[in-house]
Amino acid sequence: MPQSVEKILDHGPLFREPEYQEMFARKKACDGAASIDATALQSEYTRGWDYREKNFAREALVINPAKACQPLGAVFAAAGFEKTMSFVHGSQGCAAYFRSHLSRHFKEPCTAVSSSMTEDAAVFGGLNNMIDGLANCYSLYQPKMIAVSTTCMAEVIGDDLHGFIGNAKAKGSVPEDFDVPFAHTPSFVGSHIDGYDNAIRGILEHFWKDNPASAGSSETINIVPGFDGFCVGNNRELGRMLGLMGVSYTFIGDAADQFDTPSDGEYRMYDGGTTIDELKAAKGAKATVALQHWNSRKTLEYAASVGQETASFNYPLGVKATDDLLMKVSALSGKAIPEALRLERGRLVDAMADSQAYLHGKRYAIFGDPDFVKAMARFILETGGEPVHCLSTNGGKEWAEDMQKLFDGSPFGKDCKAYAQKDLWHLRSLLFTEPVDFLIGNSHGKYLERDTGTPLIRLTFPIFDRHHHHRFPVIGYQGGLRVLTTILDKLFDKLDAETNIAGETDISFDLTR
Ligand code: SF4
Fold first, then answer.
1. Fold (topology level) of 344-498
2. What is the percentage of the chain residues whose pLDDT exceeds 70?
């Protein structure tokens, strides 16, 4: 074999070595794989309108959905609270998947434990796993809070978290007064954004239920960020803007520090996050504001039920979206928007105007969570571009109607369409039959990029194959500048690639763009 101590090969060159090539060829023959010609013929057929109609008529099959399951959102939500251990009641493999999914994006460890349910628990129920699991978690990892969610196995057999946690406390797994908020997060409905919403609501209910504080007794505003893979950059940026305004605020879940621990010789299993005292005091806030509407519906419903004013946004990315958020916060807090932020706004508008000649009329496909897709489409319209295909697997009918209103409000929106509950195989058909200039989404779009030739711009979770994007904000005016630059970099790279053939196209291979 080509691998040796003296010559360690990365898997790229390693698998191109003759030994592996031969092995792949034998495997292919053994599998009875179709010939290259037959595959190419079929691939060609799947690029046309005829196949697109068949593809969109499919009902009982989902191919490559752009979403994850509920407990992933609950694990992310738990990471936003001080010294909180996420406890997944169900299979160990599910918890490993959530941890690796988040670690691969943030390039940081993600802590979570599971109750390790196996066949016997699936038949007799997972009570004993909960009793032992909570006891082990409490003594091994010394958290201040354990946030429990469920996988599909626990939900299919109908385990009752409230009863189980009560039983575990009675058996002494954790002290009676130890905080164990919980949320049922069945994976067979909704997606990670619902799991996030259920978990945040569960945590608020736990700390607010018998809490005598009355809404409006403090000047503070609660901010619910939503499931946000860019929380590291975004939460800090929003905190900076609110600091400039002099607004008193509490993040209901802030995972920025947990997913951005420094390398300074100290391992931090827990870092940062909203404290239990802050959570309790948050009941007295005058309002709860959600940065992502579709991520926070149940949480906002609960905040309203305790008497708080509520407001929600669709990911404040771009000029108007940031204006709307700041004006609402200003109205709620009575604090003026300072000159420094007004200048930042002007600089973003100036940058957009500087690049207008390149951005105008560009056509885009966008996929991801419903709030992100709306935010991105809204920003593209602001740049004079056309968000032609907007697809969200976890967006519903109401989301699609809301998107249509956005398109109707802009002259650039007339040929745009929102596709709710469609997957990335649907998007493939759209990209082949109605091509666009750029695809905006996450790393899962790289196969569409390769297949359809549409350049991919990575701007949302998960980003596995590029590093550190999440450390920089995409919301607010500063975030808008970063998004603008990211789009322009891809645009100019494409333009350079199209104009670099010597003697043929390079008359336009310009130094100055
Ligand atoms: S869908 Fe169910 S089995 Fe799969 S990771 Fe999610 S909880 Fe686990």
1. Rossmann fold (3.40.50)
2. 100
